[in-house]
Amino acid sequence: MASAMQTSDSNGPRKPPSMPDPLRIAWAPDSLPPFPAVALKAMRVMSGTDSSLRELCDIVRTDPAFSAEILRVANSPLIAFPKEINSVLQASMLLGFRRLRSIVIAVGLRDYLKNSFAENMRSCWRHSIACAIVAERIARWSLVDKDFVYTAGVLHDIGRVALATMLPDSYARLLTTVVERSTDLLPAERELFGLDHCQAGRALIMEWQLPEAFIEITSRHHEPVAQANGATPVIQLSCVLADTLGFGVTSQRQPCSYTEILAQLPERARQRLPGQPEEFAASVAQEIDVIQWA
User: Fold this and answer.
1) Model confidence band, residue 1 (pLDDT cutoffs 50, 70, 90)
2) Which residue from 84, 117, 162, 209 lies 20 to 30 Å from 217 (Cα-Cα)?
3) What residue ranges define each of the domains in the chain, with the CATH number in brackets?
4) pTM
């Protein structure tokens, strides 16, 4: 009996099942809605000098929406400053360049989805932020730049966000089909769009002229972990771990348990992360809620 998950051809290899809207969609990154300029600037400025902090602060202050968000986050229980923060300049100085940049990027991604924040888009955003938070915590004990991996975590699925932004209804149906048939997402995306979200992410990083360091992250985050050291393996493990903690884009059953994923981490990181997934998930959810779309 032919498998319900795949179709076969006697003259060739098995092919992925047909997905909704089988007509291939032309990939055109320049037709996508523009990413918030403030967030793009934050991603392009990778050095943490005082001049960079002043420059980023000045950019944030010109945007009322970002200014309001920075002040709200700075006064949240997550940051817990001892007194009320009432200016972006004050918030910037207290948060520091790297923390400020992280918040701006996370809010920027949220606002990028503002006009189409349906449930699947909301899941994309939460997964990206969860991956960033998990990566930052792993990096603290892995000799990896925690600020870089936080930004990389936010960006690792930007290709998926772009595909979902192009055709939100079609992409939502594609996700449903992938879950129902327990098939792989990347081949399904390639059938519908002509490329998968890893390839789309690479294209966007180049289109937006972001640092080349993000190209490997967006391109390879679904590949098996080859080694435990470096930013790319941290993102690869953080992506899977975010799914396992309940922050997946789909409800597919995860192939690895929490314990199995922790076993792949460097020993210092493994010893310092929560022993129970529920504890870790609650901590991540609390941080996400600070910048969650209301």
Assistant:
1) very low
2) 117
3) 34-112 (no CATH), 116-294 (1.10.3210.10)
4) 0.80
